Known about the structure:
The complex is a heterodimer.
Chain A: H1 18-32, H2 38-45, H3 50-72, E1 86-88, H4 93-126, H5 135-147, H6 150-157, H7 169-188, H8 191-195, H9 197-212, H10 214-224, H11 248-273, H12 282-302, E2 307-309, H13 311-320, H14 325-338, H15 342-349, H16 353-375, H17 382-400, H18 402-406, H19 419-434, H20 436-446
Antiparallel strand pairs in A: 1-2
Helix pairs in contact in A: 1-14, 2-3, 3-12, 3-14, 4-11, 4-12, 5-11, 5-16, 5-17, 5-19, 6-16, 7-9, 7-16, 9-10, 9-16, 10-15, 11-12, 11-13, 13-16, 17-19
Chain B: H1 2-23, H2 36-55, H3 58-65, H4 67-70, E1 71-72, E2 75-81, E3 86-89, H5 111-118, E4 129-133, E5 142-152, E6 158-166, H6 172-189, H7 193-198, E7 205-206, E8 209-210, E9 212-215, E10 220-222, H8 245-254, E11 259-266, E12 275-286, E13 289-298
Antiparallel strand pairs in B: 1-2, 2-3, 2-6, 4-5, 5-6, 7-8, 9-10, 9-13, 11-12, 12-13
Helix pairs in contact in B: 2-3
Amino acid sequence: MGKPDSNIIYGLNDVPPVKDLLLLSIQQMLLLFTAATFPAMLVKEVGGTIEEAGSMVALTMIAAGIGSVIQASRNKWMGSGYLCPNVCGPSYIAVSMQAAWSGGFPVMRGMIVFAGVVEMLLSGVIKKLTFLFPPVVVGLVVMMVGVSVIPVSVSNFFGIKYAGDSIAWQDVTVGLVALAVMVSANIWGKRAVKMFCLLLGVLAGWILALVIIPDALSDMNRIIHEPWIAFPVHDLNQLSLGFSSKLIVPFLVISLCGSLKSFGNLVAAQKISEPDLKELDMKPIGKGLLADGFTTSMAGLMGGMAVDTSSSNVGLAAATGAVSRWIAICAGTIFAILGFSPKLSTAIAMVPGPVVGACLLFAVSFMIVTGLQEMTTEKLNERKVFAMGIAFILGVGTGLVPEVFARMPHFLRPFFSDPLSSTTVLAVVLYQIFHIDHLWRRFKKDRPE
Amino acid sequence: MKKFIWIVLIGLVAGGVGCGLTQRQSLPDFSAYDYRDTRRLLTLVHQAAALIEVQGEAAFVAFATDTDTWKLDNAYLYVYAEDGVNLFHGGYPELVGRNLYDFKDLWGKKAMQMIYQETKNPNNPNGWVHYLWNSPGSLHPTWKSSCNLRVTMPNGQTVVVGSGLDASRPEREFFRILVDDAVRLIESQGADALPVLKSPESRFTVLNSRVFVMAMDGVCLISPGMDMTITDSLFEYKDFTGHTPLLELKNRLEGGVDHATVGMLCSEHAGEHPIKMSIYGRVAHMDGQPVIVGAISELPRPAWMK
């Protein structure tokens, strides 16, 4: 495997030819669909109707699509200018469900708007914190962005929907074939084959699934009954907002975690898109977080679910060497348009779970390796080894043994609820603690006589 | 090398396609069931019933010899005659020839007799029966959910073929069946149905849950939990988030719908990981008065979700 940051085919500001642009956008969009069904799952679990579920999916897609365009467009006010599109945020599902149960969908939407505003406020602070993120910390954060996608990718790869489900050989075969095609096309394929490796893998896996997984074909029958075009808002009540003071804390916490995750994604996008940067450029990252918060609020106002930046799409860009922000703009536009077409969006959402898992495994591999490479660009001394090692062990521990961290004091739980947030916070804090003597010396030197 | 790899990949796809085309068989729609284990069990029993219908007792030989096809890693087939005599047993062959018509579970449920009743219940097309037992060789009791189908062999004899899952997980469909049957019982028997619904020996207490009944003002007639009066009205019950799900259920049912489903979060252990639950409910008319009949079940948890 070549260096992930040395194979750029379409750079950040390059505009690929129309055919390539369309195919690369469709490839990116396929990954965006991996989370498109989360709103439907949420509505189903809180006892909503099929129409409500359809509307929620469509409105979230439209918001995520617009958000991806804003994120990639480096305008004066917001947007990182990187290929770092939005998906429906899985980390928001539990709190959104809690809000929907306690006060219905208006309260859920109102609290999502609130979470977005919090993230926008945080973006102003993060811009000023460059000194907290030396390359070794950035590398660890990028690696953990990949690690945080492992549960979704592995369970999908083996076709496991619910905890405790049995494994079927058909699912494993489909996942393996899809992954093998993607990886082979990426390693041995020439320019176009390498660039569209994910698309090729999806097609191979999907065709195989339609034949050997009975549910895959019967699911496709659902498409027949879906209309080609539909406006997702049926009733103005779908846009009403509520607020619950009891939900402020959980939404604050999740907004903080979401900001950290998006921070990691934007850092990864920067490392992949601009490999020559010597140190982190916080300006586009801050503008990216502002765009992410704005999109989350917009999703709530539009009647959709909260959105988040997508780790796997950044990984895919690294894998294919196509990091042009125009791909994100095009993919976001198509994604938003598909929100108005239930037939097409349902068809793409039918990509079988093992194929989705293969896409995520493929994309996440690059994220992890990119992070590792960044970590080792500078010499690791004892201070860095312990800061990064302890942060990694405790951070990953929150995912491996969540029961240990579940009974922490309430004020600490937000920092130990997810491997990415925990590792980021611990790495930043421990790095500064283990360099306290350096900081003291610098402080004394800078102090006026 | 490259050519070889592509040939292997294309071969894999082609092989899978060919294999899939030869194995396809039409089965009823099992999309109401969330868990794969349940759908695998349903597939096994339906395929076994189809084979018995064609081959009669010869199918038992196939069941015994081709265990790759006719046995799951956590379930086996059994066949009973209408009088309760075991004709085939994929798990405990020593039971063949024994009459288990009076078999009762740990709570006194007449499980075998329930199987015969449920295979005739149109509201329960897959003949689901749930009972608490300890499988031979184990010392701790677990819930078993079995799927049963009535089938007529070529010689005219009617048998029941089925299979069950130990430590089964609660499917929402199980509770839909129970609540719908409880509504039918209340509407036909009135208040006399309440002691039947409440008894742990009845089929209405399953998988650590039971059918509950409450008046339209929230007064509890059969509690979803223990028979203790904690609040005057079940509408006052608050879940982990402070939400009042039973009041929400009543409000939705008053909107004129046939049935309603409401979600709630329940605290587990010290409240670190609340469990997602679902309440399915319907309105029944008991001696002319409307009452709400429902059941609470745990919702499936996505594999990736903590």
